[in-house]
Amino acid sequence: MSLRYALLGFLTTEQASGYRLTQEFGESMGWFWYASHSQIYPELRRMEAEGLVTSELDGDDGRGKRTYTITDTGRGEFDRWLVEDADYPPQRDAERIRLVFLDQQHPDVIAKHLRAHRDHHQRLLDIYADQLEQIRSGTFPRLRKRLASQPPESAELVTGLKALALEGNARRARTEVEWADQGLLWLTTCTTDESRRH
Amino acid sequence: MSLRYALLGFLTTEQASGYRLTQEFGESMGWFWYASHSQIYPELRRMEAEGLVTSELDGDDGRGKRTYTITDTGRGEFDRWLVEDADYPPQRDAERIRLVFLDQQHPDVIAKHLRAHRDHHQRLLDIYADQLEQIRSGTFPRLRKRLASQPPESAELVTGLKALALEGNARRARTEVEWADQGLLWLTTCTTDESRRH
DNA sequence: TAGGGCATGTAATTCGTTACATGATTGC
DNA sequence: GCAATCATGTAACGAATTACATGCCCTA
Fold first, then answer.
1. How many Å lie between the alpha carbon of B55 and the closest alpha carbon of chain A?
2. Chain B contacts of A165, Cβ < 8 Å?
3. Cβ contacts (< 8 Å) between A40 and chain B: which residues?
């Protein structure tokens, strides 16, 4: 059900089309919850059928852009979800499995995987750092819309929470980079020792 | 396909029944890749049909414990997978979504979620620390079996990689705990300031 | 006029969860 | 005799990926 709540959350700030949501859930929202258009369009339809959102066609033409707006029912359902306890999903990390069983492969293969891991998370870290800068400097468009849509006394919370969330992602990425670097370092000393012994 | 490779990986160390695998993938292996019995049993059957594993019934009775053993085909397929490049799955974190939209809720609700987050990851961290201790002291049973099943010259790699993998999980958990604590601290100062202003 | 972005959908398949279901053995 | 654990399965459903499919509008 998380996609549903992610969509509702977005719609509490502004109304949007499926296309727009698809863009957001592939980019900024996507750093927290990724979703593709083939998942979003049917979900919006279901949500409309359940009265959580309403939609109307923009322009005069019969076919084309459909804009979704959250209803009071939708807001109520979203608020209910907000206070609900989290359930922490089980861990699933294919790369960890690989690493654990890589002990019979050439060290170069291990190094390849660790370097790719580090590079991947370094790229993410760069993006998060950039976004955090935009949040703090107030140039992030979605944040400005959120601030405008919410009562001014909650401005500090709005900004602070968005920053905290992104900060969390940045910390995660940094942790992965540092871990991979530690792994690469260990691998070097480990294989050097090994060759010295022969 | 990751469950398949996780199962194959386990079977490169020792043969096992579906039940045994279910236990392992709910515990130690489960820290990297969780799976339930309703997923494991059918997958083993499919893998047998594809020649990656073979099975035989233990004991004389017709029904009962079935032990699975990896085949050469299975080993080949697993080795092929080991060197393959990783693909990094999209991010999906329902708790982050919640946090970002929690700005209209009472600070107590935010604090509740952050505390639960910290506690959850602290519990994980305790488990990982304990397991790491067992790895380093050589009392971890699965590691001993792995060492016995692999050539002695790779002993350092076997132990080192398992420790590195767990160390990665521990780092992740520690990062989450620290992040949640930072969030709670910020929340306190933020809401104190707020009330002082009135 | 061809290619790219806008805009919306569906279908097939795979992956994972939850619930249902059964029977044997072991220890209190 | 009863409860727990061992041991194996299936069915229904939901979540997510990949591929297929269509049509508009703009601009190079």
1. 22
2. 96, 99-100
3. none
Q: Compute the distance between CA of residue A18 and CA of residue A38 in angstroms, rounded to an integer.
A: 10
Mutating which of B100, B171, B192 best tests the A interface, going by the most A Cβ atoms within 10 A?
Answer: B100
Cβ distance A82 to B102 less than 8 Å, yes or no, reads yes
Give the integer Cα–Cα distance in Å for B182 and B152.
45
Using the 8-state DSSP alphabet, how is residue B33 labeled?
Answer: B
A148 contact B CB<8A: no
User: Which of A76, A74, A83, A116 is closest to A99 using CA atoms?
Assistant: A116
What is the model's pLDDT at position A168? 98
What is the full DSSP assignment across B64-121?
S-EEEEE-HHHHHHHHHHHHSPP--PPPB-HHHHHHHTGGGS-HHHHHHHHHHHHHHH
A9 close to A78: Cβ distance less than 8 angstroms = yes
pLDDT digits (tens, 9 = 90+) for B3-61: 999 999 999 999 999 999 999 999 999 999 999 999 999 999 999 999 999 999 986 55
Nucleotide closest in space to B94 (CA vs C1') = D15
- The SS3 assignment for A54 reads strand
Whether residue A33 contacts residue A25, with contact meaning beta carbons closer than 8 Å, is answered with yes
What is the pTM (predicted TM-score) of this model? 0.95
- CA–CA separation, A172 and A185 (whole Å): 20
**B148 contact A CB<8A:** no
Fold of B3-83: Arc Repressor Mutant, subunit A (1.10.10)
Nucleotide nearest to A87 (CA to C1'): C17
Q: For chain B, what are the domain ranges?
A: 3-83, 94-197
Would you place residue A64 in the very low, low, confident or very high pLDDT band (cuts 50, 70, 90)?
confident
